[in-house]
Amino acid sequence: MAKFVMAIALAAIGIFIVDQNIKQLSLDGYRYYGSCIDLTLVYNKGVAFSMFSFLAEWLKWIQLVLISGVTVYIVKLRNTCYSVPAGILIGAGLSNVYDRFVHGGVIDMVYWHCGFDFAVFNFADVMIDIAVVWILALNFWPAICRKKEL
Predict the structure, then answer these.
(1) Domain count, the chain
(2) Residue 142 confidence (pLDDT)
(3) Which of these, 106, 104, 101, 103, lies nearest to 19 by C-alpha position?
(4) Residue 120 included in any domain
(5) Is the residue at 149 inside a domain?
């Protein structure tokens, strides 16, 4: 059980630190404008595509409850295959929630505009997507991992 929790914690802490350091570059004024990608600074008050921004201050508390629920679910599964993707998901989610508490909104900086305009996003958003796909793959194809319950 200790290795399981340690893997979750290390993945979460690692993603949190990397994401916050990338966001700090944007806060320090780093900008880049290219033909396909711009690096700029945007404070997202909502979630994806600024949805639910009307929830204002409630959104960060709702997200904390959701992250707590995911954490409890993964720990109750007691399957080591979920430790790293769960840690990635938790760390990235907490990094975005941290932004809401400290900056009033999530710091987004990557703007894709090559062929079509896409939402502005950040490293944590990408890590959340990867973790969700990873967890879904483990659920739909359980043979991917050897089931080691703790």
Answers:
(1) 1
(2) 81
(3) 106
(4) yes
(5) no
Amino acid at 54: F
- Domain of 99? 2-144
| pLDDT confidence tier of residue 2, bands split at 50, 70 and 90 | confident
Kind plus residue range of the DSSP H or E element containing 7: helix 2-27
Residue 76 in domain: yes
Q: What is the band of 150 on the pLDDT scale with cuts at 50, 70, 90?
A: low
Active site residues: 108, 125
Element (H, E) at 44: strand 37-44
Burial readout 101-135 (b: 16 or more C-beta within 10 A, e: otherwise): eeeebbbbbbbeeeeeeeebbbbbbebbeebeebb
Is 41 within a domain? yes
Q: How confident is the model at residue 31 (pLDDT cuts 50, 70, 90)?
A: very high
Query: How far is residue 30's CA from residue 32's CA, in Å, rounded to a whole number?
Result: 7
Question: With 80 as the cut, is the pLDDT of residue 50 above it?
Answer: no
Cα–Cα distance measured from residue 128 to residue 96, given in angstroms and rounded to the nearest whole number: 10
